[in-house]
Amino acid sequence: MARIFSRNVVEGIQFQDVSLVPIWERVRAGERLGHADGVRLLETDDFTAVGRMGDWKKRQVSGDKVYFVLNRHINPTNICVLSCTFCDFAKNPGDEDAYELSIDEILDLLDDDMHEVHIVGGHHPTWPFEYYEDIVKAIAEKFPAIDIKGFTAAEIDYFWRRWNIHPEESLARLKAAGLKSMPGGGAEVFSERVHQLLLPGKSDANRWIEIHQMAHGMGIKTNCTLLYGHIETLAERVDHFMKLRETQDESGGFLAFIPLQYQVGFTKLVPRHTPPMDDLKVIATARLMLDNIPHIKAYWVMLGEGTASLGLNFGADDLDGTIGRERIAHAALADSPAGLARQKMVRLIRDARRTPVERDALYNEIEVYAN
Ligand code: V47
Predict the structure, then answer these.
(1) Cα–Cα distance for residue pair 219/225, rounded to 1 Å
(2) How far apart, in whole angstroms, are the C-alpha atoms of residue 17 and residue 7?
(3) Mind listing the pLDDT tens digit for each residue in 54-69?
(4) Number of structural domains the chain divides into
(5) Structural domain that includes position 308
(6) I want to staple 76 with a disulfide (CB 3.0 to 4.6 A). Which of 2, 55, 121, 204 is the partner?
């Protein structure tokens, strides 16, 4: 029997799933979406309509532009006191593949062309806080043109738990040393159920939010993330979006949201990673729900280059950066390359029929690559 599709075209979008039409009407009217809307967007098979809505919303914010940055991810150590069940990166001291980078080794990974360094590492059992401060100082001194984006809220909380250095103090000292912004990692999923199952012992949702709000209050911009595609439910993903949106209403310092697709690696919480259709719906739903966060990244390292480039038509306006030698996703067997050249970033963005814009960590434009 022939399958009959409805032919509902509303304001330029053809809907196969007519339950999305009221959502589209609210998006066009500039109204906030609710929890049920978010779940509907993630559930539906009409992913092209979801993508068109996400793209429309993206264009309201950044037009045709898609940002990228010449950057380098540096993970100073993989030695970590935690054993989060989704993480392949963390090692114990003495493990064959455990490593610790010296400040000179870190400086050797950077060069003058770069505009951002992203620093995230394990919760090291004995490295004093001053070592992190010295890393930031040394980079700021040798490479004044590189914006330093470093330390997840979970690491800032660990400095408190391990060394009794209050987050306000560690953030102030890191800022004085040269820290410009903070990455969004460590948020995982703001669900107490998931937290208990996957990361007991790591700082929880309230603490993550508190530290980001503290940073915002001190003029430090931050990013935010969601780790999805493991044991979380669709409703828990949407709860997470709503909490991020509330946080941003209050303190306003999030620059970008990055959906992190769970890399199955050796931890295998689920048999396979999420299919591209789900990744694209997560990007579009984030764009539509997070109406107060300006940038949404399609993180090519975890999504792969193809899905990331498609994500630029589903509401994402940022491809992150060239990255250099990424270790967290690659420890979990990500099959993307470890880094991409500037020309490759430009090509992925042009493939998506968008205008590449090179930026710094704070989204100041460095160069627009006219098409
Ligand atoms: O905090 C760990 C996650 C994060 C796995 O702010 C995993 O601009 C997937 O936060 N599969 C680090 N994810 C990456 C991160 C990030 C990346 C790019 C840009 C920005 C930004 C932030 O990766 C960790 C954790 O949430 N993670 N293991 C895994 N198996």
Answers:
(1) 20
(2) 10
(3) 999 999 999 999 999 9
(4) 2
(5) 63-368
(6) 121
